[in-house]
Write a structure and sequence with these properties.
The protein is built from three helices and 27 strands. The radius of gyration is 33 Å and the shape is elongated.
């Protein structure tokens, strides 16, 4: 009887603890085909995937200050934001498939068009506008396309990190290309070796951390070839060289040095001409002995 009561009491305790445990909301997939439905989807609580079913131009600010994840399924469509983005408190906006559609931000105003703070992250396709196109203040920003701005194309501060897979264009002639922390950088002031293969690295460390902007290397400058596997008479070799700016590696092949009979050490001279019979070939030796025997008998 006591064993039965103990088992019943343990079951009640387990059920009670389960009732007190927080309920985790599963991510939902919402659809948007215009600005109104997009606003509703952005305001929905919890982590959500927003699937576009039409091209949308959105003229309102996107500002998220809670730790939720919004995943855009662009579905081959284009989302054009004509306002600013502010992400705080661990908010994340990401693209389900960056190659399947575009999320572009176009907005000219004083200050930054995009601002992402510590613990938050953002992925977009192209960015245009602002005195500074974007500022990662301890957060992370990924641009899969190009950046156009009046002044700095990107600013990383507070330990922020920005990756740009396209180009940066600054409209003001005397403007700085990039700013990391309080330090302005021109396009030519990248670090070597790069800390991300295939990208030019612009970085500066201050009391807030290491601030870094990576820009895809558009024109590689290769160093000398390094032989990895030498070629032989019958097999090709391998070699590689690296871009001196971004450390991108290019692999190449080395042609075989030639057939086995091309090696002078494996040939002999007969009547003033070099033959390509291998010395190690048994039947060639038999032929040679027969030939000399015939000559001996003839004379």
């Amino acid at each position: 009887m006591k064993k039965a009561l103990s088992a019943l009491l343990a079951a009640v305790m387990v059920l009670g603890l389960a009732a007190l445990a927080p309920i985790t909301a599963h991510a939902a997939t919402l659809t948007a085909n215009d600005a109104a439905s997009l606003a509703t989807a952005l305001a929905a609580a919890g982590d959500n995937t927003i699937r576009l079913t039409a091209d949308i131009t959105y003229n309102n600010r996107i500002e998220i200050s809670t730790a939720k994840i919004i995943t855009f399924d662009l579905n081959g469509k284009t989302l054009t934001l004509r306002h600013i983005i502010r992400l705080f408190g661990g908010a994340k906006i990401q693209l389900l498939n960056p190659a399947n559609g575009e999320f572009n931000v176009y907005y000219y105003s004083d200050g930054d068009v995009i601002e992402v703070f510590g613990g938050s992250s953002l992925e977009v396709t192209n960015v245009e506008g602002g005195d500074w196109a974007m500022n990662a203040v301890g957060g992370e920003i990924t641009v899969y396309g190009d950046v156009t701005s009046m002044n700095e194309g990107a600013c990383a501060s507070g330990g922020g990190k920005i990756t740009i897979n396209g180009t940066i264009t600054t409209i003001a002639p005397a403007s700085d290309y990039i700013k990391v922390g309080s330090t302005a950088k021109t396009a030519a002031q990248f670090l070597t070796p790069s800390t991300k293969t295939g990208y030019l690295t612009y970085s500066f460390t201050d009391s807030y951390g290491t601030n870094t902007v990576w820009v895809k290397c558009a024109a590689h400058t290769f160093g000398d070839w390094t032989v990895d596997t030498p070629a032989t008479a019958t097999a090709t070799g391998t070699k590689h060289r690296n871009c001196t700016a971004c450390n991108f590696r290019e692999d190449g092949t080395i042609p075989a040095t030639g057939g086995g009979g091309d090696d002078p050490g494996d040939c002999f001279v007969l009547w003033g001409k070099t033959t390509t019979y291998l010395k190690s070939n048994f039947w060639n030796w038999i032929l040679l002995i027969f030939l000399f025997g015939w000559i001996w008998m003839a004379f």
